[in-house]
């Protein structure tokens, strides 16, 4: 046998098969170790710090002493550990169980799922909504179900990876326009007139730079060229706009944006889950055709309970959402006065631009020593030469918390 000739001693058929399997695994390990080493060598290795407390403005981190100020969570409204949100999750867990052990259309739809979908559509002032396990799944599920080879999708070049991956799955004609460049978008829309449907897809707020899509201009071009508008509102829902409904409310175009995808895993309780909200016919189609919806288990009742209470708190009062504005401006103005360059436009994502990848990494580690939890971002997450530390402001940060964060940044350069 081949194995026997190779090893110069006889092997049974079973031993030979086992040897080939081990050889294949060894080859795989060789390939993986080379790939992992290339990531380490490029300085882009991502280590995971271990938190030993609830999510919040003050946390405990394994290996660090005392409380750490957390300035890098998507916990924009501080609802991840809000007592009413937690209580609602516990009540749903007790009443409806740990999970459904089913997809929605078999035996995985409870009244709390339908109630949350109704609440989401009411919050966004849309006709209907559909829940997913995450907004990544929502983005993976919409373009393939909606668009055909007769259609076209026009995507901002800096859209989130989930939008990019979702678009890759569909068979529509694909156009990519320069970041927030309306002249380039118009040229692409002109070229796309030959297609049946045209869908412009953009993040409402871009997570790496903290800038906000020019939705007024996008909607104006969409009307001119008979296109639909889709926005991903993961970094806007709950805190942008007078009532926290997002960038379309902030910019006064709620009636011109056709489809909204967003998350329950950031401002709205921070647990998990995503959704699409828009025309009822679209939502009905997604229930029939969207693969992540059809082949994924229903959201766990505890997650549904937490998100539902978060939306209740938002719809009862806009005070939490409005508190973000002053705190964001305080951090941005103090950092600018200290000589730092902050990207973005009045968004609680405040990228502190540093340029060099090693500086961002070393500075983030130093900040943790000073009691501030932030993370450095560098290529390939952001373009080369644009490394940064992304600071994120939460409604539950105090003014003293914000001032201490600014002090820690300035101390790094005068040590």
Describe the structure.
The structure is a single chain. The chain is of the alpha/beta class and 415 residues long. Helices cover 46% and strands 14% of the residues. The chain is built from 16 helices and 13 strands. A seven-stranded mixed sheet has the order 3-9-8-7-6-4-5, with helices on both faces. It has a three-stranded mixed sheet with strand order 1-2-11. A three-stranded antiparallel sheet has the order 10-13-12, with helices on one face. Strand 7, helix 10 and strand 8 (259-263) form a beta-alpha-beta unit. Helix 3 (83-96) packs antiparallel against helix 13, helix 5 (111-124) packs parallel to helix 13 and helix 14 (319-337) packs parallel to helix 16. The N and C termini lie far apart (69 Å). The model has no long low-confidence stretch (mean pLDDT 94).
Q: Give the N-to-C terminal Cα separation.
A: 69 Å
Unreliable runs, pLDDT <50, ≥5 residues? Answer: none
How many strands, what sense, and barrel or not for the largest sheet?
7 strands, mixed
Q: What spatial order of strands do you see in the largest sheet?
A: 3-9-8-7-6-4-5
Determine the strand fraction and express it as a percent band: 5-15%
Count the DSSP helices.
16
DSSP helix fraction: 40-55%
Inertia-based shape: globular
What structural category characterises the helix and strand content? Answer: alpha/beta
Number of strands: 13
Note the run of SSEs as H and E. Answer: HHEEHHHEHEHEHEHEHEEHHHHEHEEEH
The overall pLDDT, averaged over residues, is 94
Radius of gyration from the CA trace? 24 Å
